[in-house]
Amino acid sequence: MNGGLSQGALAVIIPVLNEAARLPATLHALRAEIPGAEIVVVDGASTDESVGVAREAGARVVFAARGRGAQLAAGIRATSAPWLLLLHADTVLAPGAGAALARFIAAPDAGARAGYGRFTLATAAPWARRMERLVAWRARVLGLPYGDQGLVISRALLTRVGGMAALPLMEDVDLVRRIGRARLVALPIDAVTSAARHARGVRRRSLRNLTCLALYFLGVAPWRIVSFYHGRE
C-alpha cells in the first residue's frame, strides 16, 4: 500500500466550515498519498457544499459545534485509529507525504513524539517565502507549529497530554504546548496551504495573529480572543 501504512492505522481529522472550493484538492492528495487512511471530515454547520464534497470523495462526515477545537475533538472521538493526523481543510500534502508519515510512525520511539510538516504557501510571491521562513523558525525555536502545518500524533500520546481541548481559537497552540518542544519533530513533508487568505493584507494579518498569540500567553481566555480575531477578518 502506498506510503506503507496499513488499513485503519491512521485517521485524518479535518475540521471544515464552508470549504467546498478548497476541500477537493486536500482530499484528492490524501487519497493519493495515504490510501489506507480513514478520512473524517467534521463539519461546523457549513452553508455551502462542503458536506456533499466530502461524502462524494468517500470521507466520513460527522458534525460538531463551530470551532476547530470542538470539531477536532469530535472527529477524534469518531474514530478508533491508533494514529491521528490533524489537518486543515485548505492544506494539501505534497507528494511523498505518505512515505514520510509511514517512516515516522514506524520509528521505535514514534509513540512518544508528534510530527509536523513544513508550512508552504501555494504562491511564488516573495512575501510567501519570508513568511515560510518565519514559520519554520517559530516551529523550530519556539516549539509552536500551527494547525496549517498538520500534526501527526499517536492516540496514546494525545491521551497522555490531556486530549484535544474544545477551544474556539488557539487549539493548535494549546495542544503543542502540552506536547512540549522536546517531543515535536519536523517532518520532510510540504504542507501546502492556499495563499488566498494570507495574501489579503499580509502585514495586517501577521500583526493580528501575533496579537492573538500574545493575548493567549498573557492568559486571556480563547473565548475572548476569538472576538478580536474574527472582528479583524
Strand content is 15-25%
Topology as a string of helices (H) and strands (E): EHEHEHEEHEHEHHEHHH
The CATH architecture assignment of the largest domain turns out to be Alpha-Beta Complex
**Highest CATH level, the class of the largest domain:** Alpha Beta
Distance between termini?
42 Å
Question: CATH topology of the largest domain, which one?
Answer: Spore Coat Polysaccharide Biosynthesis Protein SpsA, Chain A
Number of strands: 8
Radius of gyration: 17 Å
Q: So what's the oligomer here?
A: single chain
Can you offer a commentary on this structure?
With 233 residues, the protein is of the alpha/beta class. Helices cover 43% and strands 20% of the residues. The chain has ten helices and eight strands. α9 (202-217) packs antiparallel against α10 (222-231). The longest helix is centred in the middle third of the chain and has 17 residues, at 126-142. The radius of gyration is 17 Å and the shape is globular. The protein starts with 9 loop residues before the first strand and ends with a helix.
Core attributes:
single chain; 233 residues; alpha/beta; Spore Coat Polysaccharide Biosynthesis Protein SpsA, Chain A; eight-stranded mixed beta sheet; 10 helices
